[in-house]
Design a protein that fits this description.
Helix content: over 70%
Shape: globular
Strand order of the largest sheet: 1-2
Order of helices and strands: HEHHHEHHHHH
Radius of gyration: 21 Å
């Protein structure tokens, strides 16, 4: 019992140190973006709105400062993401067999690539469409007057879920490789997954139907891709 307790405490201490490293990387990334990347990040976030001829306004004294914190958080998270992912991988790496460790570098790079693709896809293909629907097509004939802080929050909460959702094939790869799921289970669960996807989309996106549908459709596509990935891995086991 003493040995098990000692091992547990050692693992908890390691987990604590890796969380601290991840948070430190995030704070350093935020500090860097706060000092050097504010204008660039804000211009990137503002570009889709400018295409529609819309402008932002400040409606409170602290709103300008809040915008800087939010944009610094987004930039800092993207900069720190490799460190955060690696800390998570390094924590479970010692528990794996040697042949299993070999797949983690490809998985690590795939995770980064898919997260980036999710953000880029949402920004380039979905955000413009969502803003056009919400501001121009469904504005009830009213003139939009957008709060800068609320707009930045909307864009961040719109983009980040796409990055995480695009990790679905990697997650399915790991679960199939571990023997926790099979392609047959994924296929039989499809009807329930469709309902679950729309519930998840409703939770992750801003509270409007357009955003939810725009996130749910790529999730459904990725689920089908995940079934193909699971089938290939299952056949190679």
């Amino acid at each position: 019992m003493n040995e098990k307790k000692a091992n547990l405490m050692m693992h908890l201490e390691e987990l604590r140190s890796r969380i601290i490293i991840s948070l430190t990387a995030l704070l350093l990334g935020m500090a860097f973006c706060f000092v050097f990347g504010q204008e660039l990040i804000f211009q990137i976030l503002l570009a889709p709105l400018e295409k529609l001829g819309q402008e932002l306004v400040l409606i409170s004294v602290t709103e300008g400062f809040l915008i800087q914190i939010k944009t610094a958080f987004l930039g800092g998270l993207l900069l720190a993401l490799p460190v955060i992912l690696w800390q998570g991988i390094a924590f479970i790496l010692p528990a794996l067999y040697k042949k299993e460790r070999c797949i983690f570098w490809p998985l690590f790079m795939s995770s980064l690539l898919l997260f980036g693709l999710g953000i880029v896809f949402a920004y380039q293909c979905v955000l413009d469409l969502g803003l056009k629907f919400l501001l121009l097509d469904f504005n009830a004939g009213l003139t939009p007057m957008l709060s800068a802080a609320k707009y930045v929050s909307f864009v961040i909460t719109f983009l980040l879920p796409f990055g995480f959702v695009f990790e679905m094939p990697v997650v399915v790869f790991i679960l199939t490789k571990s023997g926790l799921i099979t392609p047959a289970q994924l296929r039989s669960a499809r009807r329930y997954v469709v309902v679950g996807i729309f519930i998840i989309a409703a939770v992750l996106t801003p509270p409007d139907v357009i955003s939810q549908v725009l996130l749910a459709l790529p999730m459904l596509f990725l689920y089908e891709i995940s079934i193909v990935v699971s089938t290939l891995i299952f056949k190679l086991k």
